[in-house]
Amino acid sequence: MGQVKKWRGKIEVIPVHQKINSDSRKAFNNKVMKIKESEYKEHWKWKAQTENCKPPIVLKNDVAVVKFVKNNKNAIGYICAMCERKGTKLIFIDGSEMW
Length: 99
Prior knowledge:
The protein is of the alpha/beta class. About 35% of the residues lie in helices and about 20% in strands. It has three helices and seven strands, in the order βββααβαβββ. The strands form three sheets. The chain has a three-stranded parallel β-sheet, with helices on one face. It is globular. The two termini are about 25 Å apart.
């Protein structure tokens, strides 16, 4: 977390996370990051103290993530599989793409 700060070393990455206790955040932390919420918080606390890094922007739900990513070309976020995502590019966890 917080390792990649630029796309291809040139363009700043803007990661977004969802609010605590949202189903999407729980699934992302558990299945993708393989961490608990407490570990997530500790990680960013440590990064802030040691590297002056800020955690990802927190948005309230899937709709807010889609809207933010759609309006910020450098942004990346996660949403539930069933969420409407028109106007954004979907990248599956395995790296394959779907338009």
